[in-house]
Design brief:
11 helices, 4-stranded mixed sheet, 9 strands, alpha+beta
Length: about 350
Amino acid sequence: MTGATMFRTIEAWKPTLLLDEMDRSPKDKKEMITVVLNAGFHRDGSVDRCEGDEHKVRTFNVYCPKALAGIGDYMTDTVTDRSIRLSMQKKLKSQKVEKFRRYRPEELQRKCLRWTKDNLDTLAACRPAMPDILSDRQDDIWECLFAIAEVAGGEWLQKVWNAAADQATGAASEITEDLELIEAMRRYLDETPGDKLPSSEICAWFNEQEDFPFKDLRKGGGIDQRLLSRKLKPFGITPRNLNTGEGKRPKGYLREEFQPVIERYLTTSKPIAEPLPATTPEITGQNEDFLPLPETTVADTKITVSPHKNGQGSGVADEEGVSPIEGADTQEGQSQEFAFEEEF
């Protein structure tokens, strides 16, 4: 699918898109698709295109649920930042899973549709509490799932809380190339005493570290004071003359200059708070232990939900429910990732 095919398809049919084998998509085609994916992760997302001989500008809405599948690191950071990522691995030979071709989704689809219709107003008004560790964009992506979990009640709120917190923690631990210098600087500060940091000593330490790429810069000459200054300048840190005593005034930095930058760009480890109690359908505003529900959890505390709208299905759902598939097979020796874009 090309970018043009994608935005016209979304405008015409508002589908749920599954884009498979994204790792094999040609670079030029992937670049156009990426533009649509970046714009279409929220409900008001759109792209502008010229049409006809008169080149009139037309706006195409490009929001719809999308699932991307591929092997390896197949999408840009801008797309993964707007997605919920699920990693898959080849199953063990000892594992037995249901054959996907025998899966019949109609019953589960019917239950989901009925449950959504029964609870749509409550979902729209729900303002769920979410882990502090999530970024603003992650809040946008995960909010719909937290709302569904809160209305469904039971174990679902804890499950989605754990899933979101785990993914946020994993994303925070990934140091991108432009932040490698700040991460290295944090480690240098941990190992080095003193408030005055000469540039020459920083560069010497950087070039000794095998797990950072600085020693390979300048054709193997390593990072020097001038390159260090250039890399720190975008963060608002510039070298100065340091009075270190003994008549020496080398170029360097103050420890206090780095702390705000480290706090702003690098996530520090902190405990993840427990989720707030979920609303029970029978007693809106109270949890299972009849404790008051925090006012920040829902937008309108007067909202009530009738007993048949309790997240346990409806008249079309049986008592046993549908068991989910426990795994999926992928290519030999390779892992596969799914990235989901969705917004409530």
